[in-house]
Amino acid sequence: MRPYVWILFSFIKTIFPVVVLLVILTAGWWVAPEQVAPIPLCGFKYLFGIDCPGCGLTRSFLAIARGDILDAFHYNAAGPLIYLFLGGYAVDLSLKGVRGKGLNVSARASEIFGIVVGLLLFGHWIIRLANGPTPEWPALLFFH
């Protein structure tokens, strides 16, 4: 392979994941959570008629990008932490691309973070299943 092709390939390999993450993290600037609510995004919900543990993450990310943290927790309790993780991952990839070394995060901290996210995902899911379908966030202000 020619050197300039290899350099271009390395550049794309480094930049593409960062660009994708930035698009995900900033999508809420262009799309409101209410706009995606009627779109069936979850195959699990489509097949079984109930939410999966990840249901609401898209709307949660969109709400966070707009600065609506309370709404983000309402859509999915783990959403803000996963959003934080993706932001950190984008920074890590950027640093690796620029200086060759990413963030220094201990394995123990990563394990604890993963456990907390898992507990929030499944805890929120169990509560949602136990309570049945809930009205959307604006309706909660009037019906609870």
Characteristic key phrases:
72% helix, single chain, 144 residues, disordered C terminus, mainly alpha
Can you walk through the features of this model?
With 144 residues, the chain is mostly helical. It has one domain (3-143). Helix content is 72%, strand content 0%. The protein has 8 helices and no strands. It is globular, with a radius of gyration of 18 Å. Residues 135-144 have low confidence and may be disordered.
Topology readout:
Elements: H1 3-26, H2 33-36, H3 43-48, H4 57-65, H5 69-75, H6 79-99, H7 107-131, H8 137-143
Helix pairs in contact: 1-6, 4-5
How do you describe this structure in short?
Helices cover 72% and strands 0% of the residues. It is built from 8 helices and no strands.
Unreliable spans: 135-144
Strand count, sense and closure of the main sheet?
Answer: none
Q: What is the gyration radius calculated from CA atoms?
A: 18 Å
Q: Tell me the structural class.
A: mainly alpha
Question: Helix and strand string, N-terminal first?
Answer: HHHHHHHH
> Average pLDDT value?
82
Give me the count of strands: 0
Tell me roughly what share of residues is in helical segments.
Answer: over 70%
Overall 3D shape: globular
Q: Total helix count?
A: 8
Count of discrete structural domains: 1
Percent of residues in β-strands: under 5%
Tell me the span between the first and last alpha carbons.
Answer: 65 Å
